[in-house]
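[Structure tokenization] protein backbone as discrete codes
[Encoding] learned vocabulary of local backbone shapes
[Protein] chain in single-letter code, fold in tokens
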Amino acid sequence: MQSIETGMLAVKYALDKKAVNLKLLDVRDLSTLTDYLLIATGRSDRQVQAIAENIKTELKHSHHVLPLAIEGMDKGRWVLLDYGDIMVHVFQQSVREFYDLEGLWSEAPEVELEQTEA
């Protein structure tokens, strides 16, 4: 599976759990670590955990794609799912604003998403 396909599936699975303000950034020309960054927001620690868990579970069971690493699932303020060619960041809003990954990667083109909020 190509990295953009994995990214778009992660978007779908995040939206299934009502993630908001999703951004998929194409960092292929800016980073040697990954191809895409998906940034999403949940409204509570439980929702952040549910979004990340749904992405992980659906990619595993439906597409046999496993993360290389998972960080932050226990706290639910910022969860990172590292799939190598795509990194998924699910934040609570205040944490997202503090770390400002969009600002850090402001030169990265944003992949157009059809529907990013419920």
About this structure: Helices lie at 3-16, 45-63, 93-99, 101-104. The CA atoms of residues 60 and 66 lie 5 Å apart.
